TrEMBL record:
The lineage of its organism: Bacteria, Pseudomonadati, Bacteroidota, Cytophagia, Cytophagales. Pfam families: FdtA (PF05523). It comes from Hymenobacter segetis. InterPro entries: QdtA_cupin_dom (IPR008894), RmlC-like_jellyroll (IPR014710), RmlC_Cupin_sf (IPR011051). Residues 4-131 form the Sugar 3,4-ketoisomerase QdtA cupin domain. This is FdtA/QdtA family cupin domain-containing protein.
Length: 135
């Protein structure tokens, strides 16, 4: 099973005309994208996320602003990622508890491996530790 890691997407262009980055199916993102969503205007004092998934994989991209993502695996491994380049995404596997804090102007794009299903969410930290330590 993959652990949280950064993915650098192609960055084409130059400062005079701007840039474009592209995600194509079956390249760089290790799953089929079935859902896209984005978050924005999140107050800097708010910590979002605070969950893990049973099955859903995600790639988080700060298309604007800065997002600090903290991931924790059931073995206690904690990683902190600072997303602030729109051509860099963070792969978050289903077994990673994760939280996000945003700069006020941050816009986060999320590529998800599955459609929304509340039953896929592990919202209790205690449950997260119990479920993933037993696997």
């Amino acid at each position: 099973m993959l652990n949280p890691h950064l993915i650098e997407f192609p960055k084409m262009g130059n400062p005079e005309i701007g840039y474009i980055s592209v995600v194509e199916q079956n390249t760089l993102v290790p799953f089929e994208v079935k859902r896209l969503f984005w978050t924005y205007y999140t107050p800097e004092s708010i910590v979002r996320g605070r969950h893990a998934h049973h099955k859903t994989e995600q790639v988080l991209i700060a298309v604007a602003g800065r997002i600090t993502v903290t991931t924790e695996l059931s073995d206690g491994t904690i990683q902190i990622f600072r997303l602030e380049n729109p051509n860099v995404g963070l792969y978050v596997p289903p077994h990673a508890w994760h939280t996000m804090q945003y700069s006020h102007a941050a816009v986060q794009l999320v590529l998800a491996s599955d459609v929304y299903n509340e039953d896929d969410y592990i919202r209790s930290y205690t449950d997260f530790k119990e479920i993933w330590q037993s696997k």
